[in-house]
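Summary for the funding panel

The consortium committed to producing paired sequence-structure records for every protein in the target list. Below we show the first two records in order, beginning with the earlier of the two.
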Amino acid sequence: MTDKPKAGSVNKVVLAYSGGLDTSVILKWLQETYECEVVTFTADLGQGEELEPARQKAEMFGIKEIFIDDLREEFVRDFVFPMFRANTTYEGVYLLGTSIARPLIAKRQIEIAKMTGADAVSHGATGKGNDQVRFELGYYALKPDIKVIAPWREWDLNSRTRLLDYAEKNQIPITKDKFGEPPYSTDANLLHISYEGRALEDPWVEAEDSMFTRSVSPEHAPDKAEYIEIGFAKGDAVTFNGEALSPAAMLTKLNDVAGKHGIGRLDLVENRFVGMKSRGVYETPGGTLLLTAHRAMESLCLDRGAMHLKDELMPKYASLVYNGFWFSPERQMLQAAIDQSQERVNGIVRLKLYKGSGHVVGRKSDDSLYSMAHVTFEADSVYDQTDAEGFIKLNALRLRLLGDRDSR
């Protein structure tokens, strides 16, 4: 195990680098403070931003090893889809868009550290939030002896003004919008975009509609409903209206169609792992449809016992993802059970999208457990209704015994 690294003790560090103000300042600060070589790593997780400027900025700092990796397919295939097989929501509603991206970033940083011979990694998460925990639990799980540098827990650049002053002093390019930037911070990937901080810190203040970028407001959504069909194989969405799509292409398509109909907005006060409450506003259009459709597919294909057990396990699974324990043995144990339950979750779900909602209106599967012969209100030859009498009496026995005792 390692303590916090000291200046001069680091040879090379891999920085999770976006090219924005914070990580650009961090890059220069690492060079100055630790006098070490810096490797930059920029992940394309579908955030919808041009990433080449990050390369140009890194080159300006004299960085020799620059990694810009398209991880969209891996992100959805190996992280988002496994999480959605569990119908995962944190505190009942949050679809964990930020949480689920962190273990992949940590994984790739450690891979790059091994490739380049780096002995340290660094991130731009603050000392107040969840991301510092998620990143660092991932680092230590994958490389126990790695050194971790968390600038926000070390430096005195603890305000936007000080960051800007440091950037100007060190000739770090600052985009003009940084001086008149939106009054909130964002984090985006293919699953969602989050908005939090500053103007949104008061949970009574409504978020302005102009803030949202991935969905129209339900009031401005089309006046005509749209029907879509999502096909599932082993619990994963694989077709959209009959067309086979890769995981990333599927989520992109669902984002587009759901956003058009104003689906997937969430305003939430959540409990952070570090102990404080935080207000966040989220857009998760495609994920909202995916969760609805997946549950509908399971309703047809999963046995009652398996389905109810999954629902009992889900909050624990959600907490593990939210708190950064993706690489823990308990998450992997739960994942194995969840994945086994999905072997026969195959078929098609039809949804009706209209004015902010996506309602299930049909589902079918060759692996369905739904028996028309058993549930029909018409005469049948497969179910003896008199069997219910003994079933009820056996289940009532303990209640009757209690009632007898308590009436004495």
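The next record, for a separate protein in the list, is shown here:
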Amino acid sequence: MAEHFDARETESPEAREADLFRRLPQVLAAAVAAPAYAERLAGIDLAAVTDRAALARLPVLRKSELPALHKARPPFGGFVPGPASGFARLYTSPGPIFEPEPEGSDVWHTARALFAAGFRPGDIVLNTFSYHLVPAGMIMDSAARAVGCAVIPAGPGNTEAQLELIAAYGPSAFCGTPDFLKILLDAGEKAGIAPSFRKALVSGAAFPKTLQDEIAGRGIEAFQAYATADLGTIAYETEARSGLVLNESLIVELVRPGTGEPVPEGDVGEIVVTTLDPRHPWIRLAVGDLTAFLPGQSPCGRTNRRIKGWMGRADQTAKVKGMFVRPEQIAEVARRHPELGRLRLVVSRQGEADAMVLRAEAHSPGPGLGEAVAASLQALTKLRGSVELVAPGALPNDGKVIADERPIG
């Protein structure tokens, strides 16, 4: 039995990178047929975007911006080259954000995540992701059929009916959130219906170690996928249980929160994804989640880079004395003072007043650096704050730029 879904999973990193960036200029040329991309990418030599350094100079599109952009220019904010009628299915996700599904098999590139979780031709899959308006159900449905599985389009909820389906069809595999998997298992135990599935791909919610151990103890091998409604699967877990392997069909960057600048190797950053489907391209979409790259390759034999998994949210905006302070303002402080490394703005409460302290790693602190940094902080935020210079490596590598330590309530 094959160990990998396709050859892309084990090709050399250099060959994969070369292929992705060979295709990228063609996708960029297609993207500017959409008015919003034509505006954002105006004046850029798109044919020259053939490596990561050139890609990093393109503007970042933040997912948090999409609801307002879609509302201003419905339905897709001007980011899709063709009309809505040219797509197979049309969805919405919270925001609202409107999503088109192009024609084709496994257009969200999720089949390899199922394959890595042990799904094989002949399996029957109970798919409990929603089919109603959102794309989650069809993302997993099309992936399972691309692997060669039969699918029960169950959707979420309605536990009694789900147990009837399990008893009738005996599904060998499960797709859904980890908490709903536990609900089904617990309900089946009470009803005297033994679960037939022995493998699972879970996503969409936290999967803590305690729940992982419980599911494994009930004889089910469950694997995680990190996916979004707009991009499909971004990374997936393998039998190595060593981080999540990045989807081989995407270009993934990690940037400093609030900017489009790639973080230094090993640092936590915000996930930014570029897709290569000219029908519905995403060019440097920042999804708002934090992670870090893992060094080396996975012991499972897949050669693409790995991430640690979800490590928090990049949107750390805080309201201080009635003014919003944003990560991009702190990033601008760093740009103005190249002597600095990691920065963390700590917001606290002193008596009845808000207070800010900018802790900054200083590689070569010259005289007056603290005062100069404090002046930049005030100029950028319109708020006074003190500056504490610390040694390189003193701040935690967790991607947090603004730490709001004020008591709640």
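Regarding this second record: Residues 318-404 form a domain with the GMP Synthetase; Chain A, domain 3 fold (CATH 3.30.300.30). The chain has a mean pLDDT of 93.
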